[in-house]
Amino acid sequence: MSAPGKVGFSKAVYTRPRSLVDVKSHFCPGCHHGTIHKIVAECIDRYGLREKTIGVACVGCSVFLYDYIDVDVVESPHGRAPAVATGVKRAQPDKFVFTYQGDGDLAAIGTSEIIHAANRGENLSVIFVNNTTYGMTGGQMAPTTMLGQKTSTTPYGRDFRGDGYPIRMAELLAGLEGTAYSARVAVSTPAQIRKAKESVRKAFEMQIGGMGFSIVEFLSTCPTNWGMKPLDAQKRVLGEMSEYFPPGVFKERKQADFA
Amino acid sequence: MSAPAASPAKRILTKGNEAICLGAVAAGCRHYYGYPITPQNDIPEYMAAHLPALGGTFLQAESEVATINMMLGTSASGKRVMTSSSGPGISLMQEGLSYMAGSELPAVIVNISRSGPGLGGIAPSQGDYFQAVKGGGHGGYRLIVLAPHSVQEMYTLTMLAFDLADKYRTPALILGDAIVGQMKEPFVASPYDPASTAEKPWALTGCAGRERRNVKSLHLKDNAIEVHNWKLHEKYERIRKEEARAESYMLDGATIAIVAFGTAARVSKTAIQWARKEGIAAGMLRPITLFPFPGREVFELARTVDVLLVIEMNTGQMVEDVRQCTPLHDRIAFLGKPCAMPTPEEILERIRLLAGRKG
Amino acid sequence: MTGDIIMAGFGGQGILMVGNLLAITAMEEGKHVTWFPAYGVEMRGGTANCTVVVSDEEIGSPVVGRPKGLLIMNGPSMEKFLPMLTPGGDLIINSSLVEERQVTRNDIRLLSVPADDIARDRIGSRQMASMVALGAYVARSGIVSLSTVFDCLPKVISKKYEKFIPLNVNALKEGAALAGFHA
Ligand SMILES: Cc1ncc(C[n+]2csc(CCOP(=O)(O)OP(=O)(O)O)c2C)c(N)n1
Ligand code: SF4
Ligand SMILES: [Mg+2]
After folding, report:
1. pLDDT the model gives residue C2
2. How confident is the model over B48-90, as pLDDT tens digits?
3. What is the CATH number of the domain that holds A167?
4. What is the predicted pLDDT for the residue at B281?
5. A69 DSSP 8-state letter
6. Residue (of A15, A59, A60, A63) closest to A41 by Cα position
7. How many Å apart are CA C6 and CA B111, to the nearest integer?
8. Residue B23: inside a domain, yes or no?
9. Considering the domain boundaries, does residue B2 fall inside one?
10. C42: pLDDT confidence band, cut at 50, 70 and 90?
11. What tens digit of pLDDT does each residue of A3-53 get?
């Protein structure tokens, strides 16, 4: 942390969020996981939730959530975070509960758990990181991998004949009655980061207001497994990824329509 | 179905599956997750009817995979939690059980087992012994396994399962079957006498006024996972030393000792009564805990009798553990019946045969 | 007194309920007792059955292969269970629905009880047929005392239907009287 006196600033205008642990992360250069962690920490702080939060970590590059976010965290088996979070929230309805999941975790192995948590309207929030690949295991095809995208298990590019299509989870989950809020955001420009934060705030407010299930899908990078320089990875998010996975709000429950 | 019994000294005619619910509720369990499967549906049905009024949660999950993970979350929150299922569902829970054992989370899992493998059938069976005792999930862990043989024990062992699970921070499994689950017999709702009131200083409740905590099974750094495995091992050794339980039934002067658990043990009691009337000195050692297995008792018993007759409702699983406990292998006989209860007549016939051979 | 019985009929005839009543009665008389129902797919097709074992000693199996008693409330159950009855055992049939010529064995003690007719004509409710049959079985077997059965009725009949207890008592008595006639 900067010591304002020493470097001659009169007032700190930017500080690390209280809920973000002051350690070096293990994420690769240009990876968005770090940015997304920070947004989550900022929103936890904004509502003073730190001391009543239980985070649920998934299996993927973000498994070390408990090293970075200064809250209680339980680790879940691959894909099962929404079920684990359900168990936490049902046991402690007054606490704030969120999951942090990758696209392999949420949209492949954990499809059943996410759909049913949403459909039950579980009052919890989901941070969903779509980087179109399995980062942790070395860049295999994810359910969100783009058509034509080469991964270590689609060496000739993803072909819908046999591999199917990239899944748009934010839209899919928006279609469920239990979902209170579903949005897709990106964090490749400062403006997008501001928007993303707004969405996470909305999602958290849904939980705070007892409105039901909320999810924010982040378009994220994996320069390492995409075989791209960080800047090119940003361009890919802004270009083909945003085209197929358009950012936007797909469902937002107003108090009035909450039966 | 009746609510928890008012007068503790009173005998009430109760179904085994319901006795499990009464035991769980008496032990303070207020959270139940599950998915329907025969022959244990009375349990979720009871919990659905009664837990809400007790301020608890009943949730019918989308699968047993989700079930066990909901339990993981509730257990990590420091609350007592239970599920019940049967073979196919317990198979789906193995992943979560491994995680819970690794994360040192207590919970009670009830297996009202049926015949297998695969969809098998709903006939009573003890084919899940290996899965329960050796661990069907990955990584090398143990579950505490209790085997009730009466409605009364469905009640008392459920309470004990919660205590042991909390005491040792590990999942405990009740291995029953359709016979003890579906039958009714008189039982007494004895008051719950907690054997452990373990505080849960590890529970995740929000980090108000303290450092943050985590509950996890991943240990990547240095040799952390090796250290963790030794820690678990030491715990399992302590459980072995302190928690083995068995019933000695008519073992005084016995020359033929049956070793059987659960329903097989129950049926054996009738055969033993008949054999004694014929002047054959038969008796039984009934393991109540399958893990820890009452190995010392088996070892001692093998030295004093002519025959250890192991009886199981499978083609031979626990018998392997019995063999491990004694070097006197030529004294071990086996009667197995997969997916069915041996009749007292069948057992008596074998006892007579063995008595003749030795006599 | 030791005995066991399989009771079988259509779902809705109250088979499980009268079995339960018998078990509770035995319990109140201080005996060991078990009650075991058909469960799962066995219940499909609208049949119901249960086994009650009563004993002075600890009971091993709650399921019996050779019951000493059989209470048959409908035709299909006869086919299924008659072969199992111990020679010399008691067979109670609901002769309103089961024809005597279906009884293909003569090494057993048969008691025909027109349970549905009695229930309808003398008690005023066909619902009481199983109760009539139970009365006959209890009187015939002596497994428990009929008066304890009366005492236990409130334990199986919910408060809402309390007013029907006298009807149940009458049904049990009608059945018992029938057993007396045939004894
Ligand atoms: C049951 C099971 N299968 C496979 C794995 C291996 N595995 C670990 S992380 C992962 C994929 C992670 O990808 P994603 O969820 O997209 O997260 P990312 O690393 O990209 O952030 C897989 C397959 C596992 N841990 N458990
Ligand atoms: S592998 Fe990909 S997702 Fe994982 S930390 Fe590196 S860049 Fe991020
Ligand atoms: Mg990914």
Report:
1. 83
2. 999 999 999 999 999 999 999 999 999 999 999 999 999 999 9
3. 3.40.50.970
4. 98
5. B
6. A15
7. 27
8. yes
9. no
10. low
11. 444 566 678 888 899 999 999 999 999 999 999 999 999 999 999 999 999
Q: Of the residues B243, B277, B299, which one is the last residue of a structural domain? A: B243
Q: Are residues B225 and B287 in the same domain?
A: no
- Establish if C83 belongs to a structural domain: yes
Give yes or no for residue A135 CB within 6 A of ligand 1: yes
Structural domain range at position B345: 246-358
pLDDT at A6: 59
d(CA B65, CA C22): 41
The rounded distance, in Å, linking the Cα atoms of A155 and A152 is 6
Q: What token pair was written down for A231?
A: 């800047």
Query: What residues in B contact A56, CB-CB < 8 Å?
Result: 73
Kindly write down the DSSP assignment for every residue of B105-172, as one continuous string. --EEEEEEE-B-STT-BSS---TTHHIIIIISSSSS---EEE---SHHHHHHHHHHHHHHHHHHTSEE
Between chain B and chain C, the number of residue pairs with CB atoms below 8 A apart is 63
Q: Is the ipTM of this complex over 0.95?
A: no
**B201, part of any domain:** no
pLDDT bracket for residue B8 (50, 70, 90): very low
Whether the CB-CB separation of C100 and C121 falls below 8 Å is answered with no
Give the chains touching B; criterion: ≥3 Cβ pairs < 8 Å. Answer: A, C
Residues B228 and B256 in one domain: no
Give B178-190 as a DSSP string. HHHHH-EEEEE-P
In a domain, C183, yes or no: no
Q: How many structural domains does chain B have? A: 2
Provide the token pair at B26.
């008496």
Nearest CA to ligand 2 atom 2: A222
Q: What is the pLDDT of residues C77-121, one digit of tens each?
A: 999 999 999 999 999 999 999 999 999 999 999 999 999 999 999
| B192 and B263 assigned to the same domain | no
CATH at C36: 3.40.920.10
Residue C17 belongs to some domain of the structure: yes
CA distance B136 to B29: 25
Show Cβ contacts of residue A18 under 8 Å, excluding neighbours closer than 6 positions. Answer: A41, A45, A50, A70
The predicted structure's pLDDT at residue B291: 98
Chain A positions in Cβ-Cβ contact with residue B78 (cut-off 8 Å): 91
**Mean pLDDT, chain B, integer:** 94
**Shared-domain flag, residues B55 and B15:** yes
Q: Which residue's CA is the closest to the ligand 2 atom numbered 5?
A: A27
Range of the structural domain that residue C103 is part of: 3-178
Contact between residue B37 and residue B88 where contact means Cβ atoms under 8 Å apart: yes
Q: Which DSSP category does A153 fall into?
A: T
- Which structure tokens are listed for A204? 């958290």
Using CB distances shorter than 6 Å, the residues near ligand 2 are A 27-28, 31, 33, 61, 131, 135, 222-225
CA atoms within 13 A on the CB side of B272: 30
The CA radius of gyration of chain B, in Å to the nearest whole number, is 21
- For residues B103 and B226, membership in a common domain is answered with yes
Mean pLDDT of C117-127: 95
Residues 6+ apart with CB under 8 A from C104: C82
Structural domain includes residue A18: no
- CB pair distance less than 8 Å for B70 and A89: no
Rg (chain C; Cα; Å): 15
Q: Does C33 sit within 8 Å of B185, measured CB to CB?
A: yes
Give me the mean pLDDT over the A92-118 stretch.
Answer: 98
DSSP of B213-246, one letter per residue? -EE-----STTHHHHHHHHHHHHHHHHHHHH--E
> How many domains are there within chain C?
1
Residue A259 domain flag: no
Considering the domain architecture, whether residues B174 and B303 belong to the same structural domain is answered as no
Q: C181: pLDDT confidence band, cut at 50, 70 and 90? A: very low
**Is B3 contained in some domain?**
no
Least confident window among A253-257, B38-42, C76-80: A253-257
The Cα C3–Cα C54 span in angstroms is 5
